[in-house]
Amino acid sequence: MSFIKTLKDIFSIEELKNKILLTIGLIAVYRFMAAVPLPGIDPLQLTALKDNASGGGLLTLLDAFTGGAFARASVMALGIMPYISASIVVQLMGIAIPYLQKLQKDGESGRKKITQITRWLTIGITLVQAPTYIGFIQNQMDLPAEAFLITGPVFWVSSIVILTAGTIFAMWLGERITDKGVGNGISLLITVGIIANFPAAFLQEFVAKTTNAGAGGLMMILIEIIVWFVVILLTVLLVTAVRKIAVQYARRTVAGSTQNVAGSRDYIPLKLNAAGVMPIIFAQAIMFLPVALAQKYPAIAGLQDNFGWEYNLIFALLIIIFSYFYTAITVRTDEMAQGLKRSGGFIPGIRPGKDTADKLDSVLSRITFPGSLFLAALSILPAVVVQFGVQQSWAMFYGGTSLIIMVGVAIDTLQQINAYLLNRHYDGLMKAGNTNRKSLND
C-alpha cells in the first residue's frame, strides 16, 4: 500500500509526471528506431549476423548495448556507443591538454563547450565506425547475396549517412532526457537496450532447463533466480558503499547576521568504487587488441572466447589497474582539500592543505583496492556461471558491465524522483529519503 501511495504522490506532482512521461516517450522512440533496418538490407536474411551476435563474443556485448539493433543492421546499429567513446576520449585528453583543463574549471560555460567538443568528436568517430560496420556485415558475415537489396557506392554512402544520423539522433534523445526528463539520458538508453534482451535471454534459459533431461528443471531455474537476486544485492552495495571521512567546520558568521554559530561536523563520502563502470569499459576496449591478434596467432586463440579463463584473467587484471587509474584522474583530492580549507573545514587531527590531501589520497587508495577486486570479480562472474550450465545470453545478466550499468542507473533515477518527492514533503521511494524527511519534519 505504501508503494501504491508513493506512485500516486509521483503522478500528483505535475512537473514530475510530465518529466516521467517525456522520458518514457523518448525511450519508446529510441526503441522503435532500433527496430528499423537500414535501407537496402533484407532483415529476414540476417540469421548469420544474429547468430554471431549471440555467440558469446564481443559482438554479443555490442548487441546488448544497442538493444539488438547491432544484429538487426538497424539505423541505430551503432547506438550511443560512439558518444560514449567520445566522452571517454575527451575526459582522458583533459588530463594532458591545458585548454580542456581550463574549460573544466570554467563552470557552466566550460561544460557547454566540452559538450560541444564531445558532439563533434562523436560525429568523427561515427564516420569511422559506420564504414567499418558496413564492411563487417558485408565481408565477415556469411550473409546470402539476397540480404543486400542494394549494393555498390549507393549502399555504402547511404548507410554511412544514415548510421551517423542515427547516432546523432540517439545522442539528441539522451540529452533531451537528461535536460527535460528524469535520470541520465545516455545511461538510460544503454540500460533500456540491455533490458530489451532480458526476456529473450530468460526464456531461452527457461526452455533449456525445462526441456532438456538432467538440466535441473524448475528447481534449477529457481536457484538461478535466487543467485541472480543475491548478485544484484551485492552490486547495489558496491555502487552505494562509501567511506565517510569526518570533517569539522570552525565557528563562522551566518550571512546577514553578526552572530557566530558553533562549528558543525560533517563528512566527505569517498566511494568504494569511485570509478564506476569505466574500468570495465576501458578493459573491454583494450581487449579488442589481443582478441584481434588471437585470430592470427593460434597460441593465444583462447583469448577469442570471452567466457574462457585466459580472456577473463587478463580482463580482471586490467579492471584492477584501470580502477586505480580512473579514480586517480577523476577524484582530485588536492582540489577537495583546497575546497575544505576555503570553507573553513578540516579533518580532525590533520592540518589543512597538503596534509589533508595526503590523508584523503591514502584513504582512497586503501578502499580502491577491495573495490577494484569486487568489481573485477563481478565482471568475470558471467564466465563463472556459464561453467555451471547457464546459457551465455542469460549469464550476461549475472555481472559485468550490463548489471552494473542497470543498477547504477536505477539508483540514480530513483534518487532524482526521491528528491522531487521530498522537496514537496512526500514520502520518497527509498528508505534513506523517508529518514531524511522525518529528520526535516522533526
Architecture overview:
- This protein is mainly alpha-helical.
- It has 2 domains: 17-195, Orthogonal Bundle (Preprotein translocase SecY subunit); 197-398, Preprotein translocase SecY subunit, CATH 1.10.3370.10.
- It has helices spanning 2-12, 14-34, 47-53, 58-65, 81-96, 98-104, 107-140, 153-180, 185-196, 198-211, 217-240, 278-294, 309-330, 333-342, 354-386, 392-395, 400-423, 431-441; strands at 242-249, 252-253, 260-261, 265-271, 345-346.
- It has a 3-stranded antiparallel β-sheet with strand order 4-1-5.
- The radius of gyration is 24 Å and the shape is globular.
For this entry, give a set of tags:
single chain, 442 residues, mainly alpha, Preprotein translocase SecY subunit, 2 domains, two-stranded antiparallel sheet, 18 helices, disordered C terminus
Contiguous uncertain segments of 5+ residues:
432-442
Q: How large a portion of the residues is in β-strands, by DSSP E? A: under 5%
> How many DSSP helices?
18
**What is the CATH topology assignment of the largest domain?**
Preprotein translocase SecY subunit
CATH second-level architecture of the largest domain: Orthogonal Bundle
Provide the domain count: 2
- Considering DSSP H and I runs of 4 or more, what fraction of the residues is helical? 55-70%
How many beta-strand segments?
Answer: 5
Q: How far is it from the N-terminal to the C-terminal residue, by CA?
A: 24 Å
CATH class of the largest domain: Mainly Alpha
Along the chain, the helix and strand elements come as: HHHHHHHHHHHEEEEHHHEHHHH
Going by CATH, what is the homologous superfamily of the largest domain? SecY subunit domain
Average pLDDT: 81
- Side by side, the strands of the main sheet go 4-1-5
- Shape annotation: globular
